[in-house]
Amino acid sequence: MAPAIKKILFISYDGMTDPLGQSQVIPYLAGLTKHGYEFVILSCDKPEKYEANKAYVDKLIDPYPIDWVSIPYTKNPPVLSSVYDYYKLKSKAKQLHKISRFDMVHTRPGIPQLVALYLKKKLGIKFMNDIRGFWADERVDGGMWNLKNPLYKTIYKFFRGREDECVRVADYNTCLTYRGKEEILKWKNVPQPVQVDVVPCSVDMELFNPANINSTQREAFKKELGIQENDFIISYLGSIGGWYLTKEMLQFCNILAQKKPEAKFLFISNNNHEDIINAAAVYKIPPEKIMVKFGKRHEVPVLLSLSTYSLFFIKPCYSKLSSSPTKHGEIMAMGIPVIANSGVGDVKEIIEKYKAGFVLDEFTQNEMNKIADAVCNSNTSFDKKTIRDGAKDFYDLEITLATYNAVYKKVLG
Asked: What CA–CA distance (Å, rounded) separates 110 from 93?
């Protein structure tokens, strides 16, 4: 007799119509359906993105036993909007449970964890706590919650306490990085040692495969962006603002541009394009050297393939110990070396282990000059296959799926 299908509710405050939902939720759940799980995704989607991308998401999940229920994300007023979203998510989750009788709830951090706590404590549904970031501390480090404001200080204490409670109450925990796990094992408000497995952000090695790049589409992008044959392209992939250090990245670009006249900078980003242009002007980077392009998920590998290096600087702070930048695995899968900073999850260790680029330990003029000189040095070379093999070893989606499946079995039997 075949084992009974297990039904899982997956709750995300990030929308499936956002890039993160399409890269770090749907591929996981689609892969896990092969192991006998059915899913309902409950997400908060920004209305304008939902309208524009709903059909695309429906197409992604259509081949799988995955249902998707979206509620509108509420942006304003601050704080009250999040409270409103919590009650909407909780109400919808209860309604869905009456229909589907879920065996487990699997959540991303923040508001979804509060819903999972309710479902676990009141309805007895098993709870898999996916600690994909130190959520409350990320709000502080990213400048969203100013602890000098008594209201935000109270909110921070509330959510930080709920994060500890989730670790205590959950049937199992996962986190993104080994440095994050080390930190969790030091937390004094939870029983130690915590049951926690490391599941890094993963990459679809077939989608991000230089061998699969459409040459016609690549040439079309080169023409659109005005890229010449001898241009030396440094790319940046992802959102701008918050923890992503736009000014420091443009400062480095300015230094490199002075040393390497053929250098140009391609920002593959879905937001704040004006901030990039303005920061470039502050650092006196000629506008013809800056390219800004929004790429849909299936276009990102082609755009990345235009670059010789890819750059990302992320604020090195407490909450980022738990961070596994999605972009890192995607860039490495393309065989592209990175220029990144230390103090962010396992990034430094990964780059050094797999000989996959350069790491800055501080954002000083001297350090940036040193890295820029290394980039310009004709003797500097990186092996694309070695870098891609490193991505397969550390970030491969199949490894992630195997770990999640093992955790699911521990929780569900």
From this structure: 16
d(CA 122, CA 117): 8
What pLDDT is recorded for position 108?
87
Rounded distance between C-alpha atoms, residue 67 and residue 146, angstroms: 38
Residue 204: partners with Cβ closer than 8 Å, 6 or more residues away: 23, 27, 333, 397
Read off the DSSP letter of residue 297.
G
- Whether the pLDDT of residue 264 is over 80: the answer is yes
Q: What is the pTM of this model?
A: 0.89
Q: Are 159 and 135 in contact (CB under 8 A)?
A: yes
Residue 1 has a pLDDT of: 46
340 in Cβ contact with 363 (< 8 Å): no
pLDDT number for residue 2: 54
List, for residues 115-142, the tens digit of each pLDDT value: 999 999 999 999 999 999 899 999 999 8
- The sign of the dihedral angle between the CA atoms of 366, 241, 24, 296 is negative
Task: Dig out the tokens for 317 from the structure.
Answer: 């702070």
**Contact by Cβ (8 Å): 170, 130:** no
Q: What are the tens digits of pLDDT across the range 50-69?
A: 999 999 999 999 999 999 99
pLDDT attached to residue 361: 95
Count CB-CB contacts under 10 A for residue 246.
20
Alpha-helical (H) ranges within 142-282 are 150-169, 178-184, 215-225, 246-259, 273-282
pLDDT 10s digits, 366-390: 999 999 999 999 788 899 999 999 9
Show Cβ contacts of residue 63 under 8 Å, excluding neighbours closer than 6 positions.
Answer: 30
Beta bridge partners of 45: 72
- The residues, any chain, with a CB within 8 Å of residue 80's CB and separated by 6 or more, are none
d(CA 348, CA 176): 15
Give the span between the Cα atoms of 203 and 396, in whole angstroms: 6
Q: What DSSP state is assigned to residue 255?
A: H
CA atoms of 17 and 37, how far apart (whole Å):
23
How many CB atoms within 10 Å of residue 99? 10
